[in-house]
Amino acid sequence: MHRAAPNGPPGAFSGRSGHLGRPGAEGRRQMQTETLQANGAERWIRTITSTIAVVSITGILLGAGVVVVDVLGRWLYGTSVFALNEIMSLVFAVAVAATFPAGAANRVNLKIDLLAPLTGPRMTAWLNVVGSALLLTFFIMLAFSIWGLADRYADQGRATALLELSLAPAYYAISLSMAASAIVQALHVLSDIRTALRTPAGQGTSLIVYLLAAALAALSLGILFWILTDMGSFTTFVLLNPGTTVLVGFALLWLGVFLQFPLGSVTAVIGVIGALAVLGPDAAVNTFGGDSADFLRNDQVATLPLFLIMGAFSVAAGVSHDLFRLGHVMLGSFRGGLAYATIAACAGFGAVSGNSIVTSATFGRMALPEMKKLGYAPTLSTATVAAGGTLGALVPPSGVIILFALLTEESIGALFVAAMLPAVLAIFLYFGAVFAVVTFSKEAAPQAQRATLAEIRDAFISAGPVVAMFVVVIGGLYSGIFTVTESAAVGAISAFALAVLRGRLNRATLLRVFSETTTTVAMIYALIFGGLMFAFFVNLSGAPGLVAAWISGIDARPILILALLVVVYLLLGSVMDSFGVMIITLPVVTPIILDLGYDMLFWGVLMLVVVEIGMITPPFGMNLFIIKNIDPKISLTTVMRGVLPFIVADLFKIILIIAFPALSLWLPSTMN
Question: Which residue of 2, 432, 442, 534 lies most exposed, with the fewest beta carbons within 10 A?
Fold first, then answer.
């Protein structure tokens, strides 16, 4: 399974842990004192980092407001702020970097916990120590390398092209954010060591976990010993055996992934070690810091946090209820109308949240009780929410699409538009699955319920602002009125205004929105930094060229290679989430897709569709467990049986997208 969750056991930072035996009164007093001290330190750290994060997200929101004003000025009066993009790129870069200390303080990282049930408490505690140490290494490398880059930029007088703004201050600020994250992470390492030393053996650890840990330790120590004793022969081996080098890199990566290490730090450290053999230690670390800092200055870097802000404020404004109500009154006249309404509402909510897990959780709490009350079969009700949740990542704007675009340097706007028709296709195929279920099983859903004209009118009035926001954001992007960053800014400000006008914003709501945005941004950009370095190592080795040459040599038709990749991604999607799959696979798969002659827009949409199917694929699909947790009385077997018709619909969707590439390529070709 997969999660974006704290790194470490609950309470690890505060010193809460198990202890062998029964401590005496003096021991209990000592432990209580340590716990109070740790809790106090934790409160201070979280207060400081959260304050910095609130300021950074506020800065992003204010920056969005400036962008919106500029758009209005350009649209209404034909004038705009000169070189605003240069100013905003520096502001957004510093603001995004400022979220990292809060992310570190809250231990928010992407980890794959597939083997967590097989790992005993003591082994888990020591694995947390190693994972925390990797993260500490990650932040230290970033802090020192970006500071050195800032020094060079200051000496060289490097500045922006038009306004000649010095780049050094922004890079110093980014470096300080990483240094603050390193300090926070160092405290986590000390806390995790203390926790590990006090954790009793408890439940045993499976042999497979011990074997994986032993393999990782042997491989890592062997490489380290080789580097320290004979760097020259290590470099020669890497240069002469690129294929073997990358295979070893992937072996280390998968071992780290299955041992629940933070994915961003694992990919970064492996990438730096691989690049070290070719470039030397200084150049490898500087490449990591330079690529990461330069990435933050990307014109599109603010797109992700702005769309996340849009989604968070939309949730605060209560748009999920509006969309569900609209879907109910419009589709309730059909048998199984509430199931149709749930799918339609999930699609609409996905357009503002961009996240399949959030969509499933939101509508699971909303739709499941209503369906149960009206007599829907548990198989249909649970499966509808689980499958509908996958639309959250497909309907633009989507965080997963943005990540793909940033990693492959494709146009975010073009990918959004490319996903439109496949998203509509997915909605109708899910409608078809519901229709098949209620047709062949009359007891699956009650008789239709017609809404009155007054109910339809009220639902349209309530949902109107949300629909208008989506039309403006995506329509403006498609028509060329907005750039993708301007589109995201308009969406964020619109959602904020909607929440304010509805009276849904108070101090607690604002802090929740800022907290959610901060942790998600910090997690995703840590993944991106690690992915960039790992991709650099893979490309530096020349391995993608070797793979492409091998594929050309076997003389297989491109469609067969594509089908094989689809099968691989179906398997990966069933045990990992979209972010993890992309970070691990894109460095190798992207050159293969290009060599096969496929368009990256087509591949981006197809890969997203395939991976999202894994969210509902038994036995590990994340959405299945989300639904089970929402209603513990429903068995996991019931949910798994219910999603089978939707999986069939998904497989049919894959066939159609492959057979008719125009589904994902036609609309982008018509963009202004």
Answer: 442
Tell me how far apart the alpha carbons of residues 287 and 246 are, in angstroms, rounded to a whole number: 18
Closest CA to 252 of 272, 240, 267: 267
61 in any annotated domain: no
Q: How many CA atoms lie within 13 A of 53 on its CB side?
A: 30
Could you read off the pLDDT of 145-185 as tens digits, one per residue?
999 999 999 999 999 888 899 999 999 999 999 999 999 99
Amino acid at 450: R
Report whether 9 contacts 125 (CB < 8 A). Answer: yes
User: How many residues appear in the chain?
Assistant: 672
CA distance to 192, 388, 413, 527, 583, per residue, from 404 (Å)? 34, 22, 12, 12, 9
Rounded to the nearest 10°, the torsion over CA 274, 277, 282, 288 is -20
Place of tokens 């790194």: 7
Give the chain's domain count.
2
Identify whether 305 is preceded by a cis peptide bond (ω within 30 of 0). Answer: no
Residue 463, SS3 per DSSP: helix
Q: Are residues 555 and 578 in the same domain?
A: yes
Nearest-CA neighbor of 512 among 307, 319, 313? 313
Tokens of 68: 């919106």
Task: Give pLDDT tens digits for 355-412.
Answer: 777 788 888 888 888 888 888 888 888 889 889 888 888 888 888 888 899 888 888 9
- Is the omega angle on the peptide bond into residue 618 within 30 degrees of 0, that is, cis? no
Phi-psi group of 503: left, alpha or beta (phi > 0 → left; psi -120 to 50 → alpha; rest → beta) = left
Which domain covers residue 288, as residue numbers?
Answer: 108-296
Determine which helix (DSSP H) or strand (DSSP E) holds 4, and give its type and residue range.
strand 3-6
* Residue 16 domain flag: no
321 with 267, same domain? no
* Ramachandran quadrant class, 112 (left: phi over 0; alpha: psi -120 to 50; beta: rest): beta
Query: Would you give the distance in Å from CA 128 to the centre of its chain?
Result: 21
Q: Which residues contact 430 (CB under 8 A, 6 or more apart)?
A: 343, 384, 387, 388, 391, 646, 649
What is the rounded CA–CA span in Å between residue 236 and residue 232? 6
Q: Distance between CA atoms of 347 and 341, rounded to whole angstroms? A: 10
Distance of CA 327 to the CA centre of its chain: 28
